[in-house]
Amino acid sequence: MSIRDRSFRAGERLPSEHELCERYDTSRETIRKALHLLAQNGYIQKVRGKGSIVLDSDKYEFPVSGLTSFKELTHQSGQQIRTKVHELYLLEPDTKLDELLDNPGKVPIWRVVRSREIDGEKVILDKDYIRQDIVPGLTKTICEDSLYEYIENKLGLSISYAKKEIVVEPVSEEDKELLDVENHDQMVVIRSSVYLEDTTLFQFTESRHRPDKFRFVDFARRSK
Q1: Where does this protein have coiled-coil stretches (predicted)?
Q2: What is the DSSP letter of 213?
Q3: 109: closest CA among 134, 73, 80?
């Protein structure tokens, strides 16, 4: 896509429909459908009297209200992705972890630390704490692929909902070590408590995002 590879940059006007038909050797109807899809997906804005203006598409949309795995999210967008597992081990629960995971039996807790690379840049740091009695047998291979796919397809559990908190915090030393933070001094942090269908709290996640690469979106409906 010429917008994706930056042949057309943000703020530039696309060629006319006639010029696009000639460039891509296709019909005007096909070009109009393509422009409509680009507008729907946030790549261009049609401006009366000016044509189609390219929007900034460097930021990846992250659905705040959804409960989607990183693999599912990036598979939908078509970016090149890579997950690197930095830590995977069992912790003996302490008071803080017991409270975070509602762990009355004080079972061991998995700690999983992963960086997420999108199109060659490490821009997300995920730190997961997961009850071992509910999610046994974690391996590096599973964590590099998809935790949720393993939980749902291999363990047969139903992940239902999450409670989320979104804050902005200073870049940490861990962020600097594991991510490409560049000149940024703040991170967008999403902390999630994730529940199964039977309301069991099994996972607490801290997901740290480089702010220039994401826009956090939601759908809201006004009720009276």
Answers
A1: none
A2: G
A3: 134
Rg for the chain, CA atoms, rounded: 21
Taking the alpha carbons of 144, 175, 185, 65 in that order, is the dihedral positive or negative?
Answer: positive
Model pTM score: 0.71
In the chain, list all ranges with CATH 3.40.1410.10.
60-217
Query: For residues 137, 140, 141 and 143, what is the CA-based torsion angle, rounded to 10 degrees?
Result: 80
Tens-digit pLDDT profile for residues 97-109 = 888 898 877 899 9
Look up residue 98 and give its two tokens: 């017991």
CA 71 to CA 82: how far, in whole Å? 9
Cα 140 to chain centroid, rounded: 20
**Domain 60-217, CATH class in plain words:** alpha beta
Closest CA to 60 of 123, 103, 110, 10: 123
pLDDT in tens, 12-69: 888 888 888 988 889 989 988 888 887 766 677 777 777 888 766 556 666 677 677 7
**How far apart (Å, rounded) are the C-alpha atoms in residues 187 and 99?**
25
What is the per-residue DSSP string for 123-150?
Answer: EEEEEEEEETTTS----HHHHHH-HHHI
All CATH 1.10.10.10 domain ranges of the chain, comma separated, are 1-57
1-57 CATH fold: Arc Repressor Mutant, subunit A (1.10.10)
Structural contact between residues 61 and 50, judged by C-beta atoms closer than 8 angstroms: no
